[in-house]
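Side project, low priority. Logging it here so it doesn't get lost.
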Amino acid sequence: MLSPFPLGRPARMAVMASGRGTNLEALLEAFPPGNPWGEVVLVLSDNPEAYALKRAERRGVEAVAIPWRGRRSFEAEAQALLRARGVDLVLLAGFMRLLSPGFVEAWYGRLLNIHPSLLPDYPGLRVHERVLEGGEKETGSTVHFVDQGMDTGPIVLQGRVPVLPGDTPETLERRVLFLEHRLYPKAVRLVLSGLAFPPGEGLKALLGEAWPRFQGLSPREKPLYLRVAALLSAWGLRDRVPAALLGQGGDWARGAFLTAHLLAEDHPALRQELAQLPEEVRLRAEEGLRRVELPL
């Protein structure tokens, strides 16, 4: 099984935040009670003064502060709460602590983070200052699965914004934050629909002869190919995945690649190409796009 999702029911989500909680607010807005995708049922913080807790309380979501007395103590309490509330997916949103390998392993594939750069570039802190010091022409944000490193997990989705002449770390932060508030909910929908997952058991068998090619892809390219594999599998065309990833899959492969690209970023030229494919392919692709692009 490549992904634990979709569940066949609304997901129960928890958000872990240490500070202001602006991405939390976007997630609360995107996944309110009664949303068919799921809802945020718990907000955890290591900081009792975090404004994120107040945001949750205002919306009637359970908000719990677990004061930081060390990682072992915090994680034991957090794990107990997550299990007790039946949480399916954990979302880090400005959570400023590194989680232990044991915690990450228990939630791997069901634990996401958002980082304000185009990973794998600029992991860690002081991101916007470093982007400006590096003379970059664009930056952005990355939603990724959490692994045992710092900002090193498999990418789910990225969004880009320009770096403008005269930008400061503050102007760049505001621009990227605006992007993040739209990117994170979309990435969550991709995960919940089973179209984003970390490479794991069963993937080599699915990709077959295309496995060496997949291994040679960059971290930014791999999510696209995984979406193509997931789309074809969802369309009942699992046997066509290897050929598709090798560029030999015909109209269905082209439809899957166009859809995978459009799920990451809309583009008129790709929309036009999709419209010209055979009706059966186009209708399946458009169904997938509608499902993820629009909150249900």
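Brief comment: The chain has a mean pLDDT of 96.
Revisit when time allows.
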